[in-house]
Amino acid sequence: MKALIYYGQRNVRLEDVEIPTPAETQVLIKVTDAGICQTQINEFMEGPFIINNDPHPLTGKAIPIIVGHEFGGIVEAVGAGDQNDLVGQQVAVLPLLTCGECRYCQNKQENLCDKLAYYGLIGERGGFAEYTVVNQENVFPVDDPALLTFIEPILVGIHAAEQTGAGLAGKKTLVLGTGALGLSLAAVWQFYYGAEVYLNDIIPFRQEKARQAGFNTLSKEEIPADFDIVADCAGSDPLSQQAALLEGLDYLLKGGVLLDIGTYFHPLSFMPTSLLVAEKRILPAFAYNSRDVVRLEAVLESIKTDFSIFIETAPLADIVEMGYFRAEVDRDNFTRLVVKC
Question: Does the pLDDT of residue 73 top 90, yes or no?
Answer without folding.
Answer: yes
